[in-house]
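Human: If only I could read C-alpha coordinates as easily as an amino acid sequence. Underneath my words sits a plain record pairing an amino acid chain with its C-alpha coordinates. Take your time, and here it is.
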Amino acid sequence: MKVIKAINNNNLCVIDDQGREQIVSGKGIGFGKKYGDTVDISQIQKTYLITDSELQKKMITMLKEIPFEYMVFANDIVEHIKKEYSSKLNESLLVTLSDHIAFTIERKKNGMEFTNPLIDSIRESYPKELALGEYCVEQMRERLGIELGVDEAGFIAMHIINASLNTKMDDIYRITKLINGCIEIAEYYYKEKFDRSSVEFERFASHLKHLAQRLFLNKPLPNAFGDDDTFVTMIKKTCVSQYKCALCIQKYIQETYKKTINNDELVTLTVHLKRITK
Protein backbone atom coordinates (compact mmCIF):
# COMPACT_ATOMS: atom_id res chain seq x y z
CA MET A 1 0.00 0.00 0.00
CA LYS A 2 1.15 3.50 -0.88
CA VAL A 3 0.17 6.66 0.99
CA ILE A 4 -2.04 9.14 -0.84
CA LYS A 5 -2.28 11.46 2.14
CA ALA A 6 -2.06 11.38 5.92
CA ILE A 7 -5.38 12.17 7.57
CA ASN A 8 -3.78 12.38 11.02
CA ASN A 9 -1.38 10.36 13.18
CA ASN A 10 -3.76 7.40 13.33
CA ASN A 11 -5.31 7.34 9.85
CA LEU A 12 -4.06 7.26 6.26
CA CYS A 13 -5.68 7.43 2.86
CA VAL A 14 -3.86 4.85 0.72
CA ILE A 15 -4.00 3.00 -2.58
CA ASP A 16 -3.56 -0.78 -2.59
CA ASP A 17 -1.87 -3.07 -5.14
CA GLN A 18 -5.18 -3.40 -7.01
CA GLY A 19 -5.49 0.36 -7.47
CA ARG A 20 -8.29 0.73 -4.91
CA GLU A 21 -8.38 3.78 -2.67
CA GLN A 22 -8.82 2.85 0.99
CA ILE A 23 -8.56 4.28 4.48
CA VAL A 24 -6.40 2.47 7.01
CA SER A 25 -6.24 3.06 10.76
CA GLY A 26 -3.74 2.16 13.45
CA LYS A 27 -2.17 3.82 16.46
CA GLY A 28 0.55 6.13 15.12
CA ILE A 29 0.33 4.77 11.56
CA GLY A 30 0.17 8.22 10.00
CA PHE A 31 2.97 9.85 11.99
CA GLY A 32 5.48 11.48 9.62
CA LYS A 33 3.93 9.88 6.53
CA LYS A 34 3.78 11.70 3.20
CA TYR A 35 2.58 11.03 -0.34
CA GLY A 36 4.18 7.95 -1.92
CA ASP A 37 5.45 6.38 1.31
CA THR A 38 4.94 2.65 1.83
CA VAL A 39 2.61 1.62 4.64
CA ASP A 40 3.84 -0.75 7.36
CA ILE A 41 1.17 -3.48 7.15
CA SER A 42 1.85 -4.59 10.73
CA GLN A 43 0.59 -1.22 12.01
CA ILE A 44 -2.81 -1.52 10.36
CA GLN A 45 -5.61 -2.22 12.83
CA LYS A 46 -8.53 -1.57 10.48
CA THR A 47 -9.06 -1.12 6.74
CA TYR A 48 -12.05 0.76 5.32
CA LEU A 49 -12.92 0.18 1.68
CA ILE A 50 -15.69 2.69 0.94
CA THR A 51 -16.99 2.70 -2.63
CA ASP A 52 -19.11 5.86 -2.37
CA SER A 53 -16.81 8.87 -2.97
CA GLU A 54 -19.00 11.32 -1.03
CA LEU A 55 -19.18 8.91 1.88
CA GLN A 56 -15.42 8.52 1.81
CA LYS A 57 -15.01 12.31 2.05
CA LYS A 58 -17.30 12.33 5.09
CA MET A 59 -15.27 9.50 6.60
CA ILE A 60 -12.00 11.40 6.16
CA THR A 61 -13.49 14.56 7.69
CA MET A 62 -14.86 12.58 10.61
CA LEU A 63 -11.55 10.79 11.26
CA LYS A 64 -9.88 14.18 11.68
CA GLU A 65 -12.35 15.13 14.40
CA ILE A 66 -13.18 11.93 16.31
CA PRO A 67 -10.80 10.41 18.90
CA PHE A 68 -9.18 7.21 17.63
CA GLU A 69 -10.58 5.04 20.43
CA TYR A 70 -14.15 6.10 19.57
CA MET A 71 -13.59 5.06 15.95
CA VAL A 72 -12.24 1.67 17.01
CA PHE A 73 -15.20 1.20 19.33
CA ALA A 74 -17.74 2.15 16.64
CA ASN A 75 -16.12 -0.23 14.17
CA ASP A 76 -16.34 -3.13 16.66
CA ILE A 77 -20.02 -2.33 17.23
CA VAL A 78 -20.76 -2.25 13.49
CA GLU A 79 -19.01 -5.60 13.01
CA HIS A 80 -21.15 -7.09 15.79
CA ILE A 81 -24.33 -5.66 14.25
CA LYS A 82 -23.45 -7.12 10.84
CA LYS A 83 -23.03 -10.58 12.39
CA GLU A 84 -26.33 -10.42 14.28
CA TYR A 85 -28.49 -8.64 11.70
CA SER A 86 -30.10 -10.55 8.86
CA SER A 87 -30.67 -7.65 6.44
CA LYS A 88 -27.95 -6.05 4.33
CA LEU A 89 -26.68 -2.77 5.77
CA ASN A 90 -25.57 0.30 3.87
CA GLU A 91 -21.86 1.08 4.22
CA SER A 92 -22.85 4.48 5.62
CA LEU A 93 -23.60 2.87 9.01
CA LEU A 94 -19.98 3.06 10.18
CA VAL A 95 -19.80 6.77 9.35
CA THR A 96 -23.15 7.77 10.84
CA LEU A 97 -22.80 5.61 13.94
CA SER A 98 -19.22 6.75 14.63
CA ASP A 99 -20.28 10.37 14.40
CA HIS A 100 -23.34 9.73 16.58
CA ILE A 101 -21.38 7.88 19.28
CA ALA A 102 -18.71 10.59 19.48
CA PHE A 103 -21.37 13.31 19.70
CA THR A 104 -23.32 11.37 22.35
CA ILE A 105 -20.24 10.89 24.53
CA GLU A 106 -19.32 14.57 24.38
CA ARG A 107 -22.92 15.50 25.12
CA LYS A 108 -22.98 13.18 28.12
CA LYS A 109 -19.74 14.66 29.47
CA ASN A 110 -21.39 18.08 29.32
CA GLY A 111 -24.39 16.83 31.27
CA MET A 112 -26.78 16.75 28.31
CA GLU A 113 -29.07 13.80 27.58
CA PHE A 114 -31.93 13.68 25.08
CA THR A 115 -35.17 11.74 25.37
CA ASN A 116 -36.26 9.71 22.37
CA PRO A 117 -39.90 10.46 21.49
CA LEU A 118 -40.04 7.30 19.36
CA ILE A 119 -38.77 4.84 21.96
CA ASP A 120 -42.15 3.15 22.53
CA SER A 121 -42.77 2.88 18.80
CA ILE A 122 -39.29 1.47 18.21
CA ARG A 123 -39.80 -1.05 21.00
CA GLU A 124 -43.04 -2.17 19.35
CA SER A 125 -41.94 -2.17 15.72
CA TYR A 126 -38.18 -2.79 15.78
CA PRO A 127 -37.35 -5.04 18.78
CA LYS A 128 -34.28 -6.60 17.10
CA GLU A 129 -32.77 -3.23 16.25
CA LEU A 130 -33.49 -1.95 19.76
CA ALA A 131 -31.77 -5.01 21.25
CA LEU A 132 -28.67 -4.19 19.18
CA GLY A 133 -28.90 -0.58 20.38
CA GLU A 134 -29.03 -1.83 23.97
CA TYR A 135 -25.94 -3.96 23.30
CA CYS A 136 -24.10 -0.86 22.08
CA VAL A 137 -25.15 1.10 25.19
CA GLU A 138 -23.91 -1.73 27.42
CA GLN A 139 -20.58 -1.83 25.57
CA MET A 140 -20.21 1.93 25.99
CA ARG A 141 -20.63 1.45 29.73
CA GLU A 142 -18.13 -1.42 29.92
CA ARG A 143 -15.46 -0.15 27.52
CA LEU A 144 -15.76 3.64 27.67
CA GLY A 145 -17.27 4.19 31.13
CA ILE A 146 -20.26 6.08 29.71
CA GLU A 147 -23.66 5.41 31.34
CA LEU A 148 -26.61 5.83 28.98
CA GLY A 149 -30.23 4.65 28.99
CA VAL A 150 -32.78 3.09 26.70
CA ASP A 151 -33.44 6.40 24.90
CA GLU A 152 -29.92 6.25 23.50
CA ALA A 153 -30.43 2.60 22.52
CA GLY A 154 -33.42 3.82 20.53
CA PHE A 155 -31.33 6.43 18.68
CA ILE A 156 -28.76 3.77 17.76
CA ALA A 157 -31.58 1.48 16.60
CA MET A 158 -32.72 4.28 14.26
CA HIS A 159 -29.26 4.37 12.65
CA ILE A 160 -29.45 0.60 12.09
CA ILE A 161 -32.94 0.91 10.58
CA ASN A 162 -31.73 3.75 8.37
CA ALA A 163 -28.78 1.66 7.10
CA SER A 164 -31.11 -1.27 6.45
CA LEU A 165 -33.77 0.66 4.53
CA ASN A 166 -31.41 3.15 2.82
CA THR A 167 -33.58 6.04 3.95
CA LYS A 168 -33.15 9.37 5.70
CA MET A 169 -33.68 9.89 9.43
CA ASP A 170 -36.83 11.93 8.72
CA ASP A 171 -38.21 8.95 6.81
CA ILE A 172 -37.40 6.61 9.72
CA TYR A 173 -39.45 8.83 12.01
CA ARG A 174 -42.44 8.72 9.65
CA ILE A 175 -42.09 5.00 8.90
CA THR A 176 -41.97 4.12 12.59
CA LYS A 177 -44.97 6.33 13.40
CA LEU A 178 -46.99 4.82 10.54
CA ILE A 179 -46.23 1.24 11.60
CA ASN A 180 -47.14 1.93 15.20
CA GLY A 181 -50.29 3.79 14.16
CA CYS A 182 -51.49 0.87 12.02
CA ILE A 183 -50.89 -1.60 14.85
CA GLU A 184 -52.73 0.64 17.34
CA ILE A 185 -55.73 0.89 14.98
CA ALA A 186 -55.89 -2.89 14.57
CA GLU A 187 -55.63 -3.49 18.33
CA TYR A 188 -58.28 -0.86 19.03
CA TYR A 189 -60.57 -2.39 16.40
CA TYR A 190 -60.29 -5.87 17.94
CA LYS A 191 -60.01 -4.57 21.51
CA GLU A 192 -57.06 -6.82 22.23
CA LYS A 193 -53.28 -6.61 22.54
CA PHE A 194 -51.54 -8.72 19.93
CA ASP A 195 -48.87 -11.22 20.98
CA ARG A 196 -45.60 -9.51 19.98
CA SER A 197 -43.72 -12.80 20.13
CA SER A 198 -45.96 -14.62 17.64
CA VAL A 199 -44.87 -15.40 14.08
CA GLU A 200 -48.11 -13.88 12.80
CA PHE A 201 -47.43 -10.53 14.47
CA GLU A 202 -43.83 -10.49 13.24
CA ARG A 203 -45.03 -11.05 9.67
CA PHE A 204 -47.68 -8.34 10.05
CA ALA A 205 -45.13 -5.84 11.40
CA SER A 206 -42.63 -6.78 8.70
CA HIS A 207 -45.22 -6.18 6.01
CA LEU A 208 -46.07 -2.77 7.48
CA LYS A 209 -42.37 -1.84 7.36
CA HIS A 210 -42.15 -2.64 3.66
CA LEU A 211 -45.43 -0.85 2.99
CA ALA A 212 -44.30 2.28 4.82
CA GLN A 213 -40.96 2.26 3.05
CA ARG A 214 -42.63 2.06 -0.37
CA LEU A 215 -45.07 4.84 0.50
CA PHE A 216 -42.47 7.31 1.78
CA LEU A 217 -39.95 6.56 -0.97
CA ASN A 218 -42.76 6.84 -3.53
CA LYS A 219 -42.18 3.33 -4.82
CA PRO A 220 -45.08 1.61 -6.65
CA LEU A 221 -47.19 -0.83 -4.65
CA PRO A 222 -47.77 -4.36 -6.01
CA ASN A 223 -50.75 -4.55 -8.33
CA ALA A 224 -51.16 -8.26 -9.04
CA PHE A 225 -54.94 -8.13 -9.33
CA GLY A 226 -55.11 -5.18 -11.70
CA ASP A 227 -58.75 -4.63 -12.66
CA ASP A 228 -59.80 -8.15 -11.65
CA ASP A 229 -62.04 -7.72 -8.59
CA THR A 230 -62.93 -11.42 -8.24
CA PHE A 231 -60.42 -12.24 -5.56
CA VAL A 232 -61.03 -8.95 -3.77
CA THR A 233 -64.76 -9.68 -3.68
CA MET A 234 -64.10 -13.16 -2.28
CA ILE A 235 -61.85 -11.71 0.46
CA LYS A 236 -64.53 -9.17 1.39
CA LYS A 237 -67.08 -11.96 1.85
CA THR A 238 -64.89 -14.44 3.73
CA CYS A 239 -62.94 -11.99 5.91
CA VAL A 240 -65.55 -9.33 6.64
CA SER A 241 -64.16 -8.10 9.96
CA GLN A 242 -60.53 -8.11 8.83
CA TYR A 243 -61.34 -6.28 5.58
CA LYS A 244 -63.19 -3.56 7.51
CA CYS A 245 -60.15 -3.18 9.77
CA ALA A 246 -57.92 -2.93 6.69
CA LEU A 247 -60.19 -0.14 5.43
CA CYS A 248 -59.68 1.68 8.75
CA ILE A 249 -55.92 1.41 8.24
CA GLN A 250 -56.29 2.67 4.68
CA LYS A 251 -58.26 5.69 5.93
CA TYR A 252 -55.65 6.41 8.63
CA ILE A 253 -52.82 6.39 6.06
CA GLN A 254 -54.81 8.57 3.67
CA GLU A 255 -55.82 11.18 6.26
CA THR A 256 -52.54 11.29 8.20
CA TYR A 257 -49.94 10.90 5.44
CA LYS A 258 -51.90 11.75 2.27
CA LYS A 259 -50.86 8.38 0.83
CA THR A 260 -53.13 5.93 -0.98
CA ILE A 261 -53.04 2.13 -0.81
CA ASN A 262 -54.61 -0.01 -3.51
CA ASN A 263 -56.77 -3.17 -3.58
CA ASP A 264 -53.72 -5.43 -3.51
CA GLU A 265 -52.58 -3.81 -0.30
CA LEU A 266 -56.05 -4.00 1.25
CA VAL A 267 -56.18 -7.73 0.50
CA THR A 268 -52.68 -8.33 1.89
CA LEU A 269 -53.50 -6.44 5.09
CA THR A 270 -56.73 -8.41 5.40
CA VAL A 271 -54.88 -11.73 5.11
CA HIS A 272 -52.33 -10.68 7.76
CA LEU A 273 -55.12 -9.55 10.07
CA LYS A 274 -56.91 -12.87 9.51
CA ARG A 275 -53.81 -14.75 10.63
CA ILE A 276 -53.11 -12.57 13.62
CA THR A 277 -56.70 -12.63 14.92
CA LYS A 278 -57.66 -16.22 14.15
In short: The domain at 1-51 is CATH 2.30.24.10 (Transcription Regulation, Sacy; Chain A). The chain has a mean pLDDT of 86. The CA atoms of residues 242 and 271 lie 8 Å apart. The beta strands are 2-8, 11-15, 21-25, 46-48.
